[in-house]
Specification:
single chain; alpha+beta; three-stranded antiparallel sheet; 2 helices; DUF1059 domain-containing protein; DUF1059
């Protein structure tokens, strides 16, 4: 299974967040959603989860 990455550095934010999350897709989606809610004050919703899922990228091999 291909590991996925969510990288806050690729998206502008007021906090200039530098967090990168890498793991299996479901793990990254869960952690990135929790991060978006707790740090970036987004509301947890199915729409947010789908938006985050769409932003995930394949992690470089070996990470």
């Amino acid at each position: 299974m291909t590991r996925k990455t969510a990288d806050c550095r690729k998206y502008p934010s007021e906090s200039n967040c530098t967090l990168t999350i890498t793991g299996e897709e479901d793990e990254v989606l869960r952690a990135a959603t929790e991060h978006a809610v707790s740090v970036h004050q987004h509301e947890d919703s199915p729409e947010l989860r789908e938006q985050i899922r769409g932003m995930l990228e394949d992690a470089p091999q070996g990470t």
